[in-house]
Amino acid sequence: DAGVTQSPTHLIKTRGQQVTLRCSPKSGHDTVSWYQQALGQGPQFIFQYYEEEERQRGNFPDRFSGHQFPNYSSELNVNALLLGDSALYLCASSSPPGQEITQYFGPGTRLTVL
Amino acid sequence: RKEVEQDPGPFNVPEGATVAFNCTYSNSASQSFFWYRQDCRKEPKLLMSVYSSGNEDGRFTAQLNRASQYISLLIRDSKLSDSATYLCVVIPGGSYIPTFGRGTSLIVHP
């Protein structure tokens, strides 16, 4: 049973660039959430996708956008990168909202912005 | 006041010790609670859900105190492998947006 997978594992970008991170959910899950985890902090919720729509959004600027595909995989896009965007980006999958809400996390993508 | 607060620690304990962490939350409408474990530079992994009546899983016991708005995690007979950061997660009723605490670091030494 494949768990949550993310790519790439590491990424280095410079300020102002754009980045796309990818996530495939655990088998049987159709809801994907994205989190940003800065060093020494807990994960911060960015947004959640279900049925190819953004269902919930945390307190992140519009530079952060996403997409969910028919196969439930998802992308996180960040435009105009800032130094403060350097963090571990985690994807988590779960069952549809309203059902079991336990989330399973992928290994994350570590983004460094120089 | 932060929505979810945890003492970052570190809690430094010898093998075999009993250690307890608390996590306070500010939203009284919160309905779902979890403890996750995160090893250094790894993803969080679900340790256990927290039920109103309290629940136990081996050496781990989780409790919820709604009146005082906190959850707790008790680890008995600590092992070296318990060394990790423990994150509490709170989900308000009607929302599916989990709020994580910053985590409590546990170091178990020989």
Model regions low in confidence, pLDDT < 50 over at least 5 residues of chain B:
none
What distance separates the N and C termini of chain B? 37 Å
- Annotation, overall tally of beta strands of chain A: 11
Helix content of chain A: under 10%
| Helix/sheet category of chain A | mainly beta
SSE succession of chain A: EEEEEEEEEEE
Q: Assembly state here?
A: heterodimer
Please summarize the sheet with the most strands of chain B: 6 strands, mixed
β-sheet strand percentage of chain B: over 45%
Beta fraction of chain A: over 45%
CA-atom Rg of chain A in angstroms: 13 Å
Give a description of the structure:
- The complex is a heterodimer of chains A (about 110) and B (about 110).
- Chain A has about 110 residues and is mainly β.
- Chain A is about 0% helix and about 50% strand.
- Chain A is built from no helices and 11 strands.
- Chain A has strands at about 5, 10-15, 20-25, 30-35, 45-50, 55, 65-70, 75-80, 85-95, 105, 110-114.
- In chain A, the strands form 2 sheets. In chain A, strands 2, 4, 5, 6, 9, 10 and 11 form a 7-stranded mixed β-sheet that branches. In chain A, strands 1-3-8-7 form a 4-stranded antiparallel β-sheet, with no helix packed on it.
- In chain A, β5 and β6 form a beta hairpin.
- Chain A starts with a strand and ends with a strand.
- By secondary structure, chain B is mainly beta.
- In chain B, the strands form 2 sheets. In chain B, strands 2, 4, 5, 9, 10 and 11 form a 6-stranded mixed β-sheet that branches.
- Chain B is globular, with a radius of gyration of 13 Å.
Please tag this protein with its features:
heterodimer, A: 114 residues, mainly beta, 7-stranded mixed β-sheet, 4-stranded antiparallel β-sheet, 0% helix, B: 110 residues, 5-stranded antiparallel β-sheet
